[in-house]
Amino acid sequence: MFTAKAYRATRLVVMPEWQGAGVGTAFLNEVMQYHLDGHGRCNREYYTFFHTSHPQLCGYLRHSDKWEQTGAMLYGSNKKRSGESIIKTGKKGGITGCGYGGHFRAVQSFKYLGK
């Protein structure tokens, strides 16, 4: 997202036996600070925006002084347009019907503010 002068992160996966121990959030905070300090791609000191739908992670980010919630969407957008886009960019004949829009998926976005 260099046109927006920002980094973007969208997934954080932690093995079930480590969930809830703070491993994922500690890792996430360190990676975001690394980029904010200018050590990321192209050495630019940009903020990072993170999108997630995980309830506990959203709760942590919402209450952390290192993060600011910037948006929330409780459901997908245009299902027809989503399906057309997936079909267009997929392998020929590989995907015949789909679409992610219109279903319940509470995606929330956050901005890492730093230490």
UniProtKB/TrEMBL annotation:
Superkingdom, taxonomy of origin: Bacteria
Designated name of the protein: N-acetyltransferase domain-containing protein
Species per Swiss-Prot/TrEMBL record: Flavobacterium palustre
